[in-house]
Automatic annotation (TrEMBL):
This is Dihydroorotate dehydrogenase (quinone). NCBIfam families: PRK05286.2-1, PRK05286.2-5, pyrD_sub2. Keywords: Cell membrane, Flavoprotein, FMN, Membrane, Oxidoreductase, Pyrimidine biosynthesis. Belongs to the dihydroorotate dehydrogenase family. Type 2 subfamily. The active site is at residue 181. It is a peripheral membrane protein. PROSITE patterns: DHODEHASE_1. CDD domains: DHOD_2_like. Transmembrane segments: none annotated.
Length: 341
C-alpha cells in the first residue's frame, strides 16, 4: 500500500512538506493507544537485543540523525521498531537553516539530496524535550548529534560545541560530534586531525560519562579516515559513525538535468552503499574490537544490515530508505534479521 501512496501522492508533494506530514503521523503513533497497537505489530524480537556503548538496544538497527531534528518523534519511532533514534543535528544557537527548497528526491536512485543547514530549535529547547523524554518508562536508546551553529566562526567552533555538549550530554544515552555535514560552511574542515583533536578533547571533557562518538564523511581520503579513527581511539572516544552524506554525484541513474537542478548538498541513499561499507571496513581494521562503530549510508534491507554487521559494525542506522519504504521499514528489517539468524 505504501509504494502506491508514495508513487501517486507523496512524490507530487514538496519533499520537506511530505516529511513534516510523516513526522506528524509518527508523533501521533507515539501516543497511547496508538503506540500500543504499533508495538504489537512492530516490536523487535528479543533475539535482536544488542549491547553496545554500555547500553542495551532492542535491535541493532536505528534511525540516523537528520530525521528527528527537534526531539519530537522519538516515542513514535521507537513504537515503529527502531532500536535507537539519533536526534539532531542540534546546534547551540537556534537556526532556520538554508532557504527552501532544500530537499530533493532522486527517485530512480532511491536517494535524496539535502542542504537543510542544521535547521533546529537549538540546544536549550532540545534539552527540555530530552528531560521530559527521560522520564518516560518506555523509550528507545536516544543519541544526540551536535553541530556548529552557523553564525559562529569556525575559529570559535570548539566553544560552540562545548556549549551544546554541556547542555545535552547529561540527557543523552550517547553524544555525537558532527563535523562532516557539507551544508555548514567550513564544517568539514574540522575533520583535519590538527583541528579535530582540540575540539574532541574539549567536547569529551564536557560530555563526562556520556559515551562520545565522532561522525565522518565518506569523501575523506583513506589515509585521513585512518587518522581520524586513530585519533578517536587515542582520545578515548567510545566510537565513530561512518558515514555522513556525500558531495559526490558519480554513477547516478537520475537524469543529469534533474541532479543539476537540485544543486549543492549532501547525497544520501542507495548510491552511498558501497563507499559507506568500504569506510566501515577501513575503520574496523584500525580500531580495537571494543571500539564501537555505527554504520550509516545506503542501508535499505536486512541483508544490508547483516553485511554491515559482518564487516564490523556494532550498530547500523538508516534514514533515506524510510522515505521510500514507509512506516513498516524497521519491522521489515527486524523480521529479516530474525529470519537470517
Amino acid at each position: 500500500m505504501y509504494p502506491l501512496l508514495f508513487r501517486t501522492v507523496l512524490t507530487r508533494m514538496d519533499p520537506e512538506t511530505a516529511h513534516h506530514l510523516g513526522m506528524f503521523v509518527i508523533r501521533v503513533t507515539g501516543l497511547a493507544p496508538f503506540s500500543w497497537a504499533a508495538r504489537a505489530l512492530t516490536a523487535p524480537d528479543p533475539s535482536l537485543r544488542t549491547r553496545a556503548l554500555g547500553l542495551e538496544f532492542a535491535s541493532p538497527f536505528g534511525v540516523a540523525a537528520g530525521f528527528d531534528k527537534n526531539v519530537v518523534g522519538v516515542p513514535g519511532l521507537g513504537a515503529l521498531g527502531f532500536g535507537h533514534i539519533e536526534v539532531g543535528t542540534i546546534t547551540a544557537i537556534p537556526q532556520d537553516g538554508n532557504p527552501r527548497p532544500r530537499l530533493f528526491r532522486l527517485v530512480p536512485d532511491r536517494a535524496v539530496i539535502n542542504r537543510m543547514g542544521f535547521n533546529n530549535k537549538g540546544a536549550e529547547a532540545a534539552a527540555r524535550r530530552l528531560s521530559r523524554l527521560r522520564r518516560r518508562r518506555r523509550r528507545p536508546v536516544v543519541g544526540v548529534n551536535i553541530g556548529k551553529s552557523r553564525v559562529v566562526d569556525v575559529a570559535d567552533a570548539t566553544a560552540d560545541y562545548v556549549r551544546s555538549a554541556t547542555l545535552l550530554a547529561p540527557l543523552a544515552d550517547y553524544l555525537v560530534v558532527n563535523v562532516s555535514s557539507p551544508n555548514t560552511p567550513g564544517l568539514r574542515g574540522l575533520q583535519a586531525v590538527e583541528t579535530l583533536r582540540p575540539l574532541l578533547e574539549a567536547v569529551r571533557d564536557a560530555a563526562g560519562a556520556t559515551p562520545l562518538l565522532v561522525k565522518i564523511a565518506p569523501d575523506l581520503p583513506d589515509e585521513e579516515i585512518d587518522a581520524v579513527a586513530t585519533l578517536a581511539v587515542d582520545l578515548g572516544l567510545a566510537g565513530l559513525i561512518a558515514t555522513n552524506t556525500t558531495i559526490s554525484r558519480e554513477g547516478l541513474a537520475t537524469d543529469e538535468a534533474v541532479v543539476a537542478a537540485a544543486g549543492d548538498g549532501g547525497l544520501s541513499g542507495a548510491p552511498l552503499k558501497e563507499r559507506s561499507l568500504a569506510v566501515l571496513r577501513r575503520v574496523r581494521a584500525v580500531v580495537p574490537d571494543e571500539f564501537c562503530i555505527i554504520s550509516a549510508g545506503g542501508v535499505e534491507t536486512a541483508e544490508d544490515v547483516l553485511a554491515r554487521r559482518a564487516a564490523g559494525a556494532d550498530l547500523v542506522q538508516g534514514y533515506t530508505a524510510f522515505l521510500y519504504r514507509g512506516p513498516l521499514w524497521a519491522r521489515q528489517i527486524n523480521r529479516g534479521l530474525v529470519r537470517h539468524r
